[in-house]
Write a structure and sequence with these properties.
Layout: H1 2-17, E1 27-33, E2 36-43, E3 46-50, H2 54-63, E4 79-83, E5 87-90, H3 96-106, H4 111-114, E6 119-125, E7 128-132, H5 155-168, E8 177-179, H6 183-191, H7 216-221, E9 226-227, E10 230-231, E11 265-271, E12 280-281, E13 292-295, E14 312-315, E15 320-321, E16 324-325, E17 329-331
Parallel strand pairs: 4-12, 6-15, 11-16
Antiparallel strand pairs: 1-2, 2-5, 3-4, 5-17, 6-7, 8-17, 9-10, 11-13, 13-14
Amino acid sequence: MRAVALARAALALLAALTGGCGKESKERVVDLGGGVKMTFVLVPAGTFTMGSTDAEIKAVLAKWPEIKEEFFADEKPAHKTTLSKAFWMGKHEVTVGQFRKFVDAAGYKTDAEKGTGYKVQFVFADGEADLVKDASWRNPYCKQTDEHPVVLVSWNDARAFVNWLNATDKAKPAGSTYRLPTEAEWEYACRGGTTTWYQWGDDADKGKGWCNATDLTAKKTLPGVSVDNLPMSWFKWDDGFLYTAPVGSFKANAFGLHDMHGNVSEWCEDWYGPYKEGDQADPGGAASGKSRVVRDGSWIAGRPPNLRSAARSPFLPYCRDGSVGVRVVLAPGP
């Protein structure tokens, strides 16, 4: 009888999330007005191993011996994590066009445009990287259309965007809320059921067609650039993009999500902090901190290991970068 009750509860939750459409509704399209829409994919509840084991980190260091072990210390301990509820996640990263719709409707000015805090965009030419300090999402100093992922938005800007979505989407399921993904939701969604470094396996060089990353396109332009005072290492394929690519240009993972590796890194809801020991259910990250979590290596991640599903980074909430963007979830109520 308990199994029957649990099954009925799961079906009720799925019906609530899909607006009563049942298991056949795997996508939700939100009309932002003026022909601008956002598509969300239903990510099922489940359990996975979050982070990296000592053996996995040892294997990474054997593959890239020039990298210091301390770079991966925050991926430990690996721990069993359960997400007890299905949730909707943006099929793509938030685009320039979607963000523009928000800015125009809300009259919003980003942190970069206000000139507060730290902002950065690197522009590449003749094998050199020049720092441009007046860049913003409106002018990222690289060619973008409304279909490219928005960049140079801070965590504060990302939160303002999801607050606007909550006020705008009158058709969202009762009790549900738009927000940034928790770090656990993000890694679970990125893995898409895999246990390997990347969605395509453990071999970085087999990722062609999967993502926009620091590959041979970048190597041709940036032969002398270093990261963290170490030489760049490259994915050994050519994706055709130096900067960002239009969202959805590469393969989707098993959950139907695009660009979970590469293109732009993505803000998470959580404060950045060390992982806890032991099994966890629906974790929300550190209780407080100075930095928020950024996930998913970008078009300028610097090295293949930075795009692994387990890789994580801290970023101050008012900071913005030409390689950092946003992905949104629609989460069910308590």
